[in-house]
């Protein structure tokens, strides 16, 4: 499949805060399609991207988000991606399914961070890195830790202190909008069935890609 690239140029005076999403057919490689602010139902989406072949993406722009949908008319599963870079594993962790996207929205919207959240003042890890560094270095994005190894005492638990990593700060944790596992179970189901509670996973076996990482998407599971 040859590379397909689409670029929509927006004058800075028209949109002072333009957002951009780049969708890839491989792990941040292969064909790519570039989308700016707007809605791209199936007919518009396939002008630039390949139907049912998206596997990763990058979202650019402060406060921006991209929402990927399974079917045309913005139906089926949906996955919300705040500003950040999402390889194949992160793409699936947010609730998307590889090679199964047909529509897209790009713009300002729910980022997944806690509403009104504030980083804990003065917090740093043992190496002197603060919350902004964790977001800048792509360890965290949109209220989720993108690398599970940082969720430890060794790194002073950034997921408890930094909004970008899932820290609740002075705000309230918000479940990832539209998230569900591959069986259609959402965050409420994980609480109801006794798999999560009190911000903790109660059964380690659900912390797998097979279940689309509820601990990264549901507050009751530890988001």
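Q: What amino acid sequence fits the structure above?
A:
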């Amino acid at each position: 499949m040859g590379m397909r690239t689409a670029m929509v140029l927006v004058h800075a005076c028209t949109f002072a805060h333009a957002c951009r999403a780049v969708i890839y057919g491989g792990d941040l490689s292969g064909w790519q399609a570039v989308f700016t602010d707007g809605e791209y139902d199936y007919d518009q989406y396939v002008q630039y991207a390949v139907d049912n072949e998206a596997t990763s993406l990058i979202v650019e722009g402060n406060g921006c988000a991209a929402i990927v949908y399974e079917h045309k008319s913005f139906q089926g599963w949906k996955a919300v991606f705040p500003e950040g870079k999402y390889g194949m594993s992160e793409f699936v962790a947010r609730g998307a399914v590889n090679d199964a996207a047909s529509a897209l929205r790009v713009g300002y919207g729910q980022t997944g961070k806690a509403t009104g959240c504030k980083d804990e003042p003065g917090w740093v890890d043992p190496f002197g890195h603060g919350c902004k560094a964790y977001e800048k270095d792509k360890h965290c994005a949109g209220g989720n830790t993108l690398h599970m190894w940082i969720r430890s005492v060794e790194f002073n638990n950034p997921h408890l202190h930094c909004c970008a990593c899932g820290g609740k700060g002075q705000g309230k944790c918000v479940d990832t909008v539209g998230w569900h596992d591959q069986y259609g179970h959402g965050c409420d189901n994980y609480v109801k069935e006794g798999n999560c509670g009190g911000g903790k996973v109660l059964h380690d076996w659900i912390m797998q890609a097979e279940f689309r990482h509820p601990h990264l998407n549901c507050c009751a599971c530890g988001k």
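Q: And what stands out in the fold?
A: The radius of gyration is 17 Å.
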